[in-house]
Write a structure and sequence with these properties.
The chain has 11 helices and 7 strands. The chain is an alpha/beta fold and about 270 residues long. Keywords: Oxidoreductase.
Length: about 270
């Protein structure tokens, strides 16, 4: 999702630095942005110039490149140990006045703030997939997040052409506290053979006029992200209604992650 954030920034005239763990991952990011720009070019009026947009994006494995950044949007996987280490490094490298926006599905923004020396400058910024096509962002106020940080986050999003809804900090916030439970229950329906995947999704699309069913949405987000998020909710609330479906765990173990692996509840070319 970080690629989508970088693309949205570059499309609106900003320079973006994409930092990831290896050159191979960064190469996949370049291809993903190329494909993303092709999709946007079909709908964006006036048309964008893909070469101009990509020229504004730098790819690197070196965190030191962020020493000049004016705003950081973190998009690390939903594993607390990994996120905590990333924030420790960001805190050392970035300028003191820089705001950290956590693009997380479920982890508490207050907890993330506690991993830094600047909890007042940490805010949640929950983007939706695909980022360049979605106009709304769920913004989360942590316990120590100041009004100035919230205003900086709103300005940042407005410059990207996006609106936002501010909510209070709670694991899963509003969107994923509801969505992850829905997707997990849809996987239970599939596991219990109540209906096939296409039938589950068709009920949501035809009866409720949703654009996508819950299992199609899971494939788009990534089944590993769904599993990690529901595990965070289960651990945070200590409530069995968030217990991960065994079929979801099995699919993640098998590498069936959805669109990004080419196979989830559906197959992709």
């Amino acid at each position: 999702m970080g690629v989508g954030v970088a693309q949205s920034l570059a499309q609106t005239g900003h320079r973006a630095i994409v930092v990831d763990v290896s050159d191979a991952v960064l190469e996949r990011a370049r291809k993903e942005m190329k494909n993303g720009l092709r999709a946007v070019a079909l709908f964006k009026k006036p048309a964008i110039d893909p070469r101009e947009v990509t020229s504004r994006v730098t790819y690197t494995t070196d965190y030191q490149a962020l020493s000049a950044a004016s705003f950081v949007v973190e998009n690390v996987t939903e594993k607390w140990d990994i996120k905590k280490d990333v924030y420790r490094r960001l805190d050392e490298i970035c300028k003191p006045e820089v705001v950290f926006a956590a693009n997380t599905s479920a982890i508490s923004i207050t907890k993330i703030g506690s991993a830094t020396k600047r909890p007042a400058q940490v805010v949640g910024m929950h983007f939706m997939n695909p980022v360049p096509m979605k106009p709304m962002v769920e913004v989360i106020r942590g316990y120590h997040t100041t009004p100035a940080t919230l205003e900086a986050a709103k300005r940042f999003l407005a410059e990207m052409g996006k609106d936002c809804i501010v909510v209070e900090d709670s694991p899963g916030f509003v969107s994923n506290r509801v969505l992850m439970l829905t997707i997990n229950e849809a996987v239970f329906l599939l596991q219990d053979r109540v209906a096939e995947a296409v039938e589950v999704d068709r009920i949501f699309k035809t009866c409720f006029e949703h654009k996508m069913g819950p299992l199609e949405t899971a494939d788009l987000i990534g089944l590993d992200t769904i599993l990690y998020s529901i595990e965070v909710l289960h651990e945070s609330f200590n409530d069995d209604k968030y217990r991960p479906c065994p079929l979801l765990k099995k699919m993640v173990d098998a590498g069936l992650l959805g669109r990004k692996s080419g196979h989830g509840f559906y197959r992709y070319e």
